[in-house]
Specification:
By secondary structure, the protein is of the alpha+beta class. Helices cover 48% and strands 21% of the residues. The protein contains 2 helices and 3 strands; from the N terminus they run ααβββ. The termini are far apart. Keywords: Membrane, Transmembrane, Transmembrane helix.
Length: 121
Amino acid sequence: MRAADDGYVTAETAVVVPALVLLFGMLLWGVMAAAQHIQVVDGARAGARAAARGEGEAAVRSVALSAAPEDATVQTHRQEDLVRVRVTARSLGPGPLSVALSAEAVALAEDGAGGTGRAGT
């Protein structure tokens, strides 16, 4: 009876090993995408802080890009006392595994904070 079971181990290994390799690859891609998303968020926050301090647009972009992943894009927008910085990038991965990552940070401009003409005056 033992001789009849000899081929099952090979067949099970042939099915399980590729499935484990695929699962490991998917987990690794997910961790890398999450790490890149954290970089995108950090870039947006750093850019918003720089813009709130009143730094020029080139300096804001430079600060945001220094924290963001490679090939990221930075958009800045000012609306009254608020500055908005949006950082977008693509995650690593081939074809459909490369997903768009985006983060936006908003900060109160220091030159407008605590000024006159606000809150009923």
